[in-house]
Amino acid sequence: MINKRFFKTKDEVEVTFELDATNVESAVLMADFLDWQPTPMKKVAKTKSFKYKTRLPKDAEFQFRYLVNESEWVNDAQADQYVPNGFGADNCIVKTAQA
Fold it and tell me: GO MF annotations for this entry (predicted)?
């Protein structure tokens, strides 16, 4: 799941990436805005999910995927779009333009 919070006075968007923690021991976010470096997501017991919150520039789009349990690639069902990644799968797209 992706939540976006827009600010009237800033040229950035707060984006929260959230992944269901059912049967998941570990989760990392891999994204172009993180130079495709594995970035651990925080486990939130209350919501039974993994979360990662960041701020991204407004009016842009970024590619990302989740890596679960160090071996399984997972896409976000609520991504704004998908694009082939050259490895036989799709990357997710998150857009930061306000609709």
Answer: 1,4-alpha-glucan branching enzyme activity
